[in-house]
């Protein structure tokens, strides 16, 4: 069954919202500066009106020449205490409306709106949900029988990992909400089913995040060793490989040398012992993620963050 998707293209002279189907067929576009629709077929006009209305409301995109911020009301006329109180009340209500609108805009930044036009040859990864690959893998498993404890453990491992990525995604939103940071989830790399849990870019640099959900577990970390409940895990090696691969691909995509740093994010471990911090892999917890990002020195200007993120969000960058 086909679904309708919307992408936004905004550049000098162009401000269009494209409506297209999941098979790449375009239904048309709306000129957001004028509010006029241009369906490819009259049959798509009603569909466009429906999906665009929801999209505009969800993302807070301005359509037409009107201002998106609440306009100040006409001040009540008259003199005396009653009129003065009415004016003061009107001013306070307007100030609250403006503050609420600005808070809403913080929750709906334009960088989270997909910008891939149909037939562009790439998919905007901001569409991806956290834990997508793990949820998909869990859904492919057969329903375990009540006595098959091995199958139940396998299903639980996949779903636990997916939920862990969702909790880390919530922390990334706390980091990005003020406006300086950007991220994408479930980044497919290559053609063999590999993916990076999260890619984060901001003033502090470029980071590949590897989420590990081991609630209540005992974690021990050395320079080259990572153990969960006494068992060695290849997390350090894998994280280093992810960061090195991301560095190569982003350098090729941007034409400038990009160094991505690897981060392992632990979800609610019971005990964390870092005997020796790995020099090239950051170890942090979900709860400490925002504090870690806030403490990073600024190494990338805003324009460079935007340039790098414009390549991070393209699926074609990671092939």
Task: Explain what this protein looks like in three dimensions.
With 319 residues, the protein is α+β, with helices and mostly antiparallel strands. The protein has two domains: 1-120, no CATH class; 122-318, no CATH class. It is 37% helix and 24% strand. It is built from seven helices and 13 strands. The protein has helices at 45-59, 80-107, 132-140, 149-176, 235-254, 289-294, 302-312, and strands at 4-11, 14-21, 26-31, 36-39, 182-189, 194-202, 205-213, 218-221, 226-228, 231-232, 260-267, 271-274, 281-285. The strands form three sheets. A five-stranded mixed sheet has the order 5-6-7-11-13. Strands 1-2-3-4 form a four-stranded antiparallel sheet, covered by helices on one side. α3 packs antiparallel against α4 (149-176). The protein is globular. The mean pLDDT is 90. Residues 62-81 are annotated as: Disordered. InterPro entries: NERD. Residues 160-273 form the NERD domain. This is Nuclease-like protein.
Task: Kindly list the characteristics that best describe this protein.
four-stranded antiparallel sheet, 319 residues, alpha+beta, NERD, 37% helix, Nuclease-like protein
Quick take:
Helices cover 37% and strands 24% of the residues. The chain has helices at residues 45-59, 80-107, 132-140, 149-176, 235-254, 289-294, 302-312; strands at residues 4-11, 14-21, 26-31, 36-39, 182-189, 194-202, 205-213, 218-221, 226-228, 231-232, 260-267, 271-274, 281-285.
């Amino acid at each position: 069954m086909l679904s309708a998707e919307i992408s936004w293209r905004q550049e000098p002279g162009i401000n269009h919202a494209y409506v297209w189907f999941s098979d790449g067929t375009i239904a048309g576009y709306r000129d957001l500066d004028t509010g006029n629709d241009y369906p490819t077929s009259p049959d798509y006009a009603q569909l466009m009106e429906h999906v665009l209305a929801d999209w505009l409301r969800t993302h807070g995109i301005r359509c037409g020449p009107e201002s998106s911020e609440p306009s100040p009301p006409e001040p009540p006329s008259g003199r005396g205490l009653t009129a003065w109180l009415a004016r003061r009340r009107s001013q306070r209500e307007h100030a609250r409306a403006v503050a609420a609108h600005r808070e809403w805009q913080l929750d709906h930044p334009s960088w989270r709106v997909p910008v891939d036009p149909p037939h562009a040859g790439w998919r905007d990864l901001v569409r991806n949900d956290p834990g997508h690959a793990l949820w998909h893998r869990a859904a492919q498993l057969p329903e375990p029988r009540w006595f098959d404890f091995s199958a139940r453990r396998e299903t639980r491992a996949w779903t636990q990992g997916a939920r862990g990525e969702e909790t880390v995604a919530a922390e990334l939103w706390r980091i990005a909400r003020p406006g300086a940071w950007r991220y994408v989830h479930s980044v497919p790399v290559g053609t063999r089913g590999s993916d990076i849990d999260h890619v984060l870019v901001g003033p502090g640099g470029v980071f590949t995040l590897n989420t590990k959900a081991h609630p209540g577990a005992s974690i021990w970390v050395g320079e080259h060793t990572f153990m969960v409940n006494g068992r060695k895990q290849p997390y350090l090696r894998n994280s280093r490989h992810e960061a090195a691969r991301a560095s190569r691909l982003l350098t090729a995509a941007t034409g400038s040398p990009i160094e991505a740093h690897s981060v392992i994010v632990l979800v609610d471990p019971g005990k964390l012992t870092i005997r020796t911090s790995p020099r090239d892999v950051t170890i942090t917890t979900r709860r400490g993620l925002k504090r870690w990002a806030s403490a990073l020195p600024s190494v990338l200007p805003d324009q460079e963050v935007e340039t790098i993120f414009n390549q991070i969000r393209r699926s074609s960058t990671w092939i």
